[in-house]
Specification:
InterPro entries: Rab-GAP-TBC_dom, Rab-GAP_TBC_sf, TBC1D7, TBC1D7_dom2. It comes from Papilio xuthus. This is TBC1 domain family member 7. It holds the Pfam family RabGAP-TBC. GO terms for molecular function: GTPase activator activity. By secondary structure, the chain is an all-alpha fold. Helices cover 68% and strands 0% of the residues. The protein is globular, with a radius of gyration of 20 Å. The chain starts with a helix and ends in a 10-residue tail after the last helix. Residues 1-17, 116-125 and 285-294 have low confidence and may be disordered.
């Protein structure tokens, strides 16, 4: 059954049927007035958002713009003005060197805006806003030319990660149980050499794999994150480790395992993302994702 499913899925992708049908389905949802955010989230959990609509869909899912399409232009004009005010403020207050990389300027703007509502510290996770914001911003800058969009999307994704901190132990538990189920040999090897806790899961989860997977692989993962389903990050971690299993099984200690997962062959990154999506859709049952519930 699994092989047949994979064959059908692969065939539809190759002939372009699946992508065309998904795009039509999304366009139908986007014609509703107002947009139904529940249906939109369900679509994003089940399918990959077409690249031409991803920016817009993410902004609605993340409450950057409202579900009323007629208001999108007006609200984005307000967002642009807010962006300009923050940019002016960090310059005038000398909060950042304006010749610094753009990601650092955006971070300074975010820190200024969030000064009074910073979250409590999470010492058990070593949460650091820069470790989340900067790699996500770098990825978004590669994806989109509009820096206003980049700032607001990065701000929203960083807030998701910040609010996700209490669920990190659950994400790590989900990773271990899923890895044991999907590849018991690999799981046992990591246990035997005391390397399971060496895996940089906190770094992976707190950056949503930005800086770990490339810009062509990440958006399909972030479709799920933006839809309120952080458990996808555990699935990505499982598939990343399994994809590198050949080298990991040769590792004799934690340091060698860490080296393996820090040197991901470029051709493997798309494989990791695609396999993670497949496992997510057919094995992880996103509709029952407890982490996605408020």
């Amino acid at each position: 059954m699994t092989d047949e499913r994979n064959f059908r899925s692969s065939y539809y992708e190759k002939v372009g049927c699946r992508g065309v049908e998904e795009k039509k389905s999304l366009e139908i949802l986007m014609k509703e007035k107002p947009w139904d955010k529940v249906k939109l989230k369900q679509f994003c959990l089940r399918f990959m958002v077409p690249a031409s609509y991803r920016n817009l869909v993410w902004k609605v899912l993340l409450d950057i713009i409202p579900v009323y399409a007629d208001s999108h232009q007006f609200v984005m004009e307000q967002r642009k003005q807010q962006y300009g005010d923050l940019l002016y403020a960090v310059d005038m207050l000398d909060l950042v060197d304006m010749s610094a990389p753009r990601t650092e300027i955006l971070l300074a703007m975010w820190l200024l805006e969030n000064e009074e509502r910073r979250p409590p510290l999470f010492p058990e996770t070593n949460f650091n806003s820069a470790d989340t914001f900067l790699p996500i911003a770098k990825t978004l800058i590669e994806l989109y030319d509009n820096e206003v969009d980049v700032y607001w999307l990065c701000k929203s994704l960083t807030d998701i990660v910040r609010n996700m901190q209490k669920d990190l132990p659950k994400l790590k538990e989900a990773f271990q149980s899923m890895l044991e189920k999907e590849d018991v040999e690999l799981f046992n090897h990591l246990v035997d050499i005391n390397a399971l806790d060496v895996l940089p899961l906190t770094k992976w989860f707190n950056s949503c794999f930005a800086g770990v997977l490339d810009v062509t692989s990440l958006p399909k993962i972030w479709d799920k994150v933006c839809s309120g389903a952080p458990k996808i990050l555990s699935v990505v971690a499982v598939m990343l480790v399994i994809t590198l299993r050949r080298n990991i099984l040769k590792a004799q200690n934690g340091d060698e395992v860490l080296k393996c997962v820090s040197e991901i062959p470029e051709q493997c990154e798309e494989v990791v993302a695609n396999k993670a999506i497949e496992l997510w859709q057919y094995g992880a049952q996103p509709q029952n994702d407890q982490l996605a519930k408020k």
